[in-house]
């Protein structure tokens, strides 16, 4: 898919933390091994993009599309949700023009979103293409173990024409303090890349689709050391940062275009506002396996 021009303005809200892409002078050197599975402390507060405002000063935090003075990018409109949105009226969402939806399914190897099943079925019954996402925590369990938990709890893919590829949400550690090592789960770029490779390969081997990666330029370039091997297979779902204001989002290393773009925190639909960078026919092909 080709990236589309974005006519939007992202307002810088948070101060006091420099964007990650500014420097790697304090890059993580920790070599703490991945421990046996441990339970995350607040998975119910983690969702797609929840850690981004804290670390990259993104103006969409807590803002409506109107208060951001944002204009929707070109592309097909859609949304991503979790239990935060409670019961979603999917026929109403479809009537407002949404063409696709993603919903949180799992986190680590211990958390299942309680609204996932209802959202997954309801969005498909309303005629939307739909898919599942996993909130990854590389310090809680291996990439392969988290992928298998995700697949066993709704994260799979079948060629039924309505199921979109699985998504890995990988972003700043929501349990970290404001230090470079913590942001990357106290892992070196090599360890992070190994974890990611384990996750995406496990998913691909099981269902025959490479998962989409949701991330930011800053997190990816810093925490993976600008890895380019994983982007060779996995499509990109980009989250904007402050420096993207007034233009299209900058690409992380390895990608030249995005497939999905989370452009606003709220707006026409429940949850985050997203676009797919293509046509109805391309979305159908993407769901079908192209």
From TrEMBL:
Classification lineage: Bacteria, Bacillati, Actinomycetota, Actinomycetes, Pseudonocardiales
InterPro entries: GH, Glyco_hydro_25, Glyco_hydro_fam25_subgr
PANTHER family (alphabetical): LYSOZYME
Protein name: Hydrolase
Entry keyword set: Glycosidase, Hydrolase, Signal
GO molecular function, one term: hydrolase activity
Signal peptide start and end residues: 1-27
Protein's organism: Amycolatopsis azurea DSM 43854
Similarity section: Belongs to the glycosyl hydrolase 25 family.
One Pfam family this sequence matches: Glyco_hydro_25
KW Protease (keyword) present: no
Keyword Transmembrane: no
SUPFAM superfamilies, sorted: (Trans)glycosidases
């Amino acid at each position: 898919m080709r990236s589309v021009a974005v006519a939007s303005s992202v307002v810088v809200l948070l101060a006091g933390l420099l964007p990650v892409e500014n420097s790697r002078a304090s890059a993580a050197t920790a070599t703490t091994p991945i421990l046996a599975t441990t339970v995350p402390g607040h998975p119910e507060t983690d969702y797609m993009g929840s850690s981004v405002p804290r670390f990259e000063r993104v103006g969409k935090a807590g803002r409506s599309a109107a208060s951001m003075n944002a204009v929707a990018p070109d592309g097909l409109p859609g949304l991503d949700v979790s239990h935060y949105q409670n019961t979603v009226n999917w026929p109403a969402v479809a009537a407002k023009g949404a063409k696709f939806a993603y919903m949180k399914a799992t986190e680590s190897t211990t958390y299942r979103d309680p609204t996932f099943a209802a959202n997954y079925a309801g969005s498909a019954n309303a005629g939307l293409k739909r898919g599942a996402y996993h909130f990854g925590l590389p310090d809680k369990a291996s990439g392969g173990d988290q992928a298998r938990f995700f697949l066993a709890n709704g994260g799979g893919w079948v060629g039924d024409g309505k199921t979109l590829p699985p998504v890995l949400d990988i972003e700043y550690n929501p349990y970290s303090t404001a230090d470079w090592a913590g942001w990357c789960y106290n892992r070196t770029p090599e360890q992070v890349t190994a974890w990611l490779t384990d996750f995406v390969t496990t998913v691909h081997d099981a269902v025959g689709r490479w998962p989409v990666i949701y991330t930011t330029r800053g997190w990816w370039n810093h925490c993976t050391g600008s890895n380019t091997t994983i982007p060779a297979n996995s499509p990109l779902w980009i989250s904007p940062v402050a420096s993207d204001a007034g233009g299209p989002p900058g690409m992380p290393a390895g990608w030249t275009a995005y497939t999905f773009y989370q452009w606003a925190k709220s707006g026409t639909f429940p949850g985050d506002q997203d676009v797919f960078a293509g046509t109805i026919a391309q979305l159908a092909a993407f769901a079908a396996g192209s």
